[in-house]
Design goal:
Blueprint lengths: L1 H36 L4 H24 L8 H4 L3 H33 L11 H5 L1 H21 L9 H5 L11
């Protein structure tokens, strides 16, 4: 089970990094084209906006797994371990319930306006809006993982940024 959860973590992390890379390169190219060559592509602006929205939705799901959301823990810090566990369980259940509502209403929205083409690219909006129910399914999965972690030995997530950018200090024998 831990292998599967860590695999999902890795796939979502790589997907998020790819989206951020696409967003950064796309914005740099867009700015250069606009200000140096006076060329603007409305379709690329629309696609970059959707990539930005995707980073938000999928990043929020991964943030739940990595416990990186904003939390006010003044009250829970004073509680007993049993009460902390109950509060954590309650929070995860609320996240699951809200996510189910978001899945339901996002699917209804896609059914109503999903076939309408976007203005710039002509891509049906349902493809853009499809990221909402998918990201909330992942959010429910991670909330269930957090609940299971209260009772089972679930591996902690491997957070990717520190190891990616940290330089190792290497000493050569005899230099010290």
């Amino acid at each position: 089970m831990n292998k599967f959860i860590l695999g999902v973590d890795k796939v979502l992390s790589i997907f998020g990094k790819a989206l951020v890379g696409i967003l950064a390169v796309g914005i740099i190219i867009s700015v250069i084209l606009r200000y140096v060559f006076s060329i603007a592509f409305v379709s690329s602006e629309e696609l970059l906006t959707m990539v930005f929205v995707a980073t938000t939705f999928f990043g929020a799901a991964l943030g739940l797994r990595e416990n990186e959301h904003i939390a006010v823990n003044n009250f829970t810090a004073m509680m007993s371990d049993k009460m902390k566990k109950i509060c954590s369980l309650l929070v995860q259940v609320i996240i699951i319930v809200v996510s189910f509502f978001m899945i339901y209403y996002s699917i209804r929205m896609i059914q109503k306006v999903g076939k309408v083409p976007s203005v710039a690219t002509g891509i049906p909006r349902g493809y853009y809006y499809g990221m909402m129910p998918v990201s909330f399914v992942i959010t429910i999965f991670y909330a269930l993982v957090n609940i299971a972690k209260l009772y089972l030995p679930i591996a902690d997530p491997i957070k990717g940024y520190k190891d990616d950018f940290e330089l190792e200090m290497v000493t050569i024998e005899g230099d010290a």
